[in-house]
Amino acid sequence: MTPDFSRVPDNRPVRAVLVGCGGMSAAWLKVAATMDGLEVVGLVDLHGEAAQARQAEFGLLHAQTGTDLDAMLAATRPDVVFDCTVPEAHHATALTAFARGVGVLGEKPLADTLERAQEMVQAGQDAGVYHAVVQNRRYDPNIRRVRQFVESGRLGDLTALHADFFIGAHFGGFRDAMQHVLLLDMAIHTFDAARLICGQDPVRVHCHEWNPAGSWYAHGANAVAVFEMTGGVVFTYRGSWCAEGFPTTWESEWRVIGTQGTVRWDGGDHPRAALVTGTGGFHSTFEELELPAAAPDARTGGHEGLIRDAVRALRTGNAPETIASDNIKSLAMVLAAIRSAETGQAVDVTW
């Protein structure tokens, strides 16, 4: 059954409390500052001075600041929490909000473990509130062009997706010491993109992970994974956080293969297709074309698009595309790939 969220009337703005005033919060607050019908009424951080700094930076003079989310929710009675905390805090943040009957739009990943994600999804459903995840790369206009073309049927029956992600990223800081740094920190974007493009869910994965010579990371900077999907599509992923030279885009490089042709997308602005026009020779003949522009009503705009969708959903009651009960499948892909890498065996993807 499609959930129907509590609705915010048109005669007042959607009221939001943002929790976690670190670096990522700036992207959210920049969007909020330009969006009609949205009001940030509170800023929360474990370090009160961080919340006060964001309040001053964005001129949020009427927003309250504090260090206790539950107290802030009681004081401001918002419609939604914008969760910009670290993944380990997503579970506690969401459950605190749900207990107050407040919805949540949170940064990826949904949670740091599958068990916590499952508990969050159930708690949000029990509370009957909005609960969605920011998968901002879904809101790229070019991935919408790819998805739209696949949906058109012009590729025939989809058979395989192949994604390459190779970037030598010298972050410094916490990532240098992370376990499973590529899979845990970045791969969810590509895995979620694969689900969007093919419209299928993960079934099983075999993943090999390693830390190559010359890596400046402590663990797992490289990975190769093969996923079986529900409709018979095979999705392969090759990735590296420490590949020096010829970097891919952050959106990865893609081949999407069907029975009637292939789409190639380098993650940039010019996805192209080669469609079969004739058969019978050693090679078929093909027509090459650039993919049509995204439809005017396509979900685009990165963080801005997702926040706009949240405001719309809170007014209309319609479910967002990145609703937590669906996005948990992308998190499950990451965690199953890690289990496979640790055991050396193919494992089922469950959520």
Automatic annotation (TrEMBL):
Pfam (any one): GFO_IDH_MocA_C3
**Molecular function terms from GO:** nucleotide binding
Tell me the ranges covered by the Gfo/Idh/MocA-like oxidoreductase N-terminal domain, including all copies.
15-130
Entry superkingdom: Bacteria
Q: Which InterPro entries match?
A: Gfo/Idh/MocA-like_OxRdtase_N, Gfo/Idh/MocA_oxidoreduct, GFO_IDH_MocA-like_dom, NAD(P)-bd_dom_sf
Q: Where is the GFO/IDH/MocA-like oxidoreductase domain?
A: 143-264
Q: Under which name does UniProt file this protein?
A: Oxidoreductase
